Amino acid sequence: MATEQERAALGGAHRFVGLAESLERHAGVPTGAEPPNAHGTNRGYGLVFFHLEQYHLTTVISTGLRFQPLGAEPAQELACTVYTEQAEAARHLVDLTAEVLVQQRTHLVPDQIVPNEQPLLPGTEFHGVLASGHPLFPPEFTRFTDPDGVEQLQVFTLLPVTLGELNYILDNGVTALRQQWARFEVDVFDLGRPSVV
User: Fold this and answer.
1) Taking burial as the number of CB atoms within 10 A of a residue's CB, which of 20, 29, 106, 178 is the most buried?
2) What are the residue boundaries of the Suppressor of fused-like domain, all occurrences included (predicted)?
3) Which helix H or strand E contains 153, and what residues bound it?
């Protein structure tokens, strides 16, 4: 039997009319999708790949988290933008983070760090992701509103952070890390980048 929260999460798909067009307007042309049951059982969300030719970027966006009972108001989806040749790594980061949210029935808040004991990607120093607004796309990508202007969905962009950057955030805060990124002109879309600290 579904709880009140589960019934509320599953209903109301009409609130997201125009979402696909909005995502495409900012993230580019859809180039592929991975259904919720791509690896067997239904994980509660799928993944959609978008390509922005102008910047040679691929954005992987979850689809379906907004219908899960995660307690988020407004609803949430996840995105990760990287250079196109690194798209599989972005898929992995979105999938891994979405899986944690569904399993723990929880949601993200702005500037939240999701740490991991081991590197999230083999051969890298990335030990976590920072839930953020998108560094390139306008605010309309992050905050989707209905025709009445009511915010219905937040799309959190996952920015990979290194172990050193995680520790720096713990000591100095997220704003200080962003300042370091700006100071050293860090390309947050490049998963081959070195740690800034």
Assistant:
1) 178
2) 55-194
3) strand 151-162
d(CA 16, CA 19): 5
Residue 103 sits in which domain range?
4-184
Does residue 191 fall inside a structural domain? no
The chain-wide mean pLDDT, for the chain, equals 92
Contact present, 156 and 186 (Cβ < 8 Å): no
| Widest Cα–Cα separation across the chain | 53
> How many domains are there within the chain?
1
d(CA 76, CA 144): 10
Half-sphere exposure of 76 (CA within 13 A, CB side): 24
Q: How far is residue 96's CA from residue 31's CA, in Å, rounded to a whole number?
A: 21
- 13-64 residue pLDDT tens: 678 888 999 999 999 999 999 999 988 889 999 999 999 999 999 999 999 9
Phi and psi angles of residue 51, each rounded to the nearest 5 degrees, phi first: -125, 130
Cα 29 from Cα 56, distance rounded (Å): 12
Higher pLDDT, 9 or 117: 117
> Is 170 inside any structural domain?
yes
Dig out the tokens for 133 from the structure: 């607004």
Q: Give the model's pLDDT for residue 9.
A: 44
Q: Got the DSSP string for 82-97? A: EEGGGHHHHHHHHHHH
